[in-house]
Amino acid sequence: MPRNYDIAELRRLDIAHHLPAQADWQEIEDLGGSRIITHADGCYIHDGDGNRILDGMAGLWCVNVGYGRDELAEVAREQMLELPYYNSFFKTANAPAILLAEKIASLTGGRLPHVFFNSSGSEANDTILRMVRHYWQVKGEHSRTIVISRHNAYHGSTVAGVSMGGMKVMHGQGFPAPGILPMAGIEHVRQPYWYNEGRDMTPEDFGTACAQAIEDKILEVGPENVAAFIGEPVQGAGGVIIPPANYWPQVEAICRKYGILLVCDEVICGFGRTGNIWGHETVGVKPDIIAMAKGLSSGYLPISAVAVSAEIVQVIKTGGDFVHGYTYSGHPVASAVALRNIEIMEREGLFEKVRNETGPYLAEKLATLRDHPLVGEARSVGLLGAVEVVADKATGARFGGAEGTAGPMVRDICIRNGLMVRGIRDSIVMCPPLIITPSQIDDLIGIIR
Ligand code: PLP
Hints:
Elements: H1 7-17, H2 25-30, E1 37-41, E2 44-47, E3 52-55, H3 58-61, H4 70-82, H5 95-107, E4 114-118, H6 121-139, E5 146-150, H7 159-164, E6 186-189, H8 194-197, H9 203-221, E7 226-231, H10 247-257, E8 261-265, H11 279-283, E9 289-292, E10 304-308, H12 310-317, H13 332-347, H14 350-367, E11 375-381, E12 384-389, H15 406-416, E13 419-420, E14 422-424, E15 427-430, H16 438-448
Parallel strand pairs: 3-13, 5-6, 5-7, 7-8, 8-9
Antiparallel strand pairs: 1-2, 2-3, 4-10, 9-10, 11-12, 12-15, 14-15
């Protein structure tokens, strides 16, 4: 049972001492402090005011197996008592990290057999940036340093993550500090966001135009200078941007044409979210490197991983030390929890359930929102969905102009009505736990309507 917290006192301390992530601190103070989440079970979170809220976001896109899993707590306890910590710096390793690496490799069908651990999605992408640049250095193609990414991509909050990300607001736009972010050597191209940017074309033509933008950028900067292209199979934090079906295969062909490494950021899309184990399977490409986090441990402990092709590792092995790593790389407790979490997802058939049952059901239910006067588009892939809120259905005009403001407003109304969703510009996005039932999907869609 939850502890009996003094919620008013916690709110006071929250304002006095605690700085929440990705937040307007003055706004939170004006609101009298944060909403205090006290406990959670299954698909529901509970707050200090006694509200039970259906978690349509799986925390922050991560609690795939839902809340309250005893066996994850048990496995953490056992591992903490046996070996709470040891690293892989001193030519050492630990059993959970090795076994988890093997498990992840097998989930890639053996295509990406080598795994490097970190604690967060941002760190995974930092690892990737250093790894792809190092790979080309060792290989002797010293000019290949540029990484190409997309506008509105999200690859994390560290300096490298923000830089590879394409969110202008995170690059500091609007404040007088030009030239600091994004860091040098990162180039951004247009995003495959058909509803916002491509409605004057067919989705196919738009998909081709967006892939072409990547080739144009490669030619502009010189193919001999490009190390990698990185993209989320489906852009999550950008607003659940599901690309036209012909986009990713063309992106892969372009990368292969110029010998550029293809990196997929699977931090949201991995572990069943889009109806396959990996998002890159859903969009039909075979990357050289993938980043994963979130669903890897269902958020029970922080852990992320980078899975890498044999070819890349072979090259790096000829170059001596890869001088990169974190204190918590291969953390035994986080690894043990992740391993058991994957076992749960497999045992309960959650990947298949998303593909065959709950994913199609969410799509069917989202389609029923399309007749709503404020809904411009409702889309999903697996259990990742978005509703575009519009002021004028015919023209697609937004409430707050081009950037939009309706999403956060609708989100607040949803929360007051017992549903946690996210508002991103003028869209509402959802990413519920993979254990969500059809009747809970009915509740989710009902509250949004
Ligand atoms: N990459 C993607 C696609 C993400 O969605 C996120 C977080 O939302 C990250 C990277 C960063 O992960 P973290 O917040 O664990 O650093």
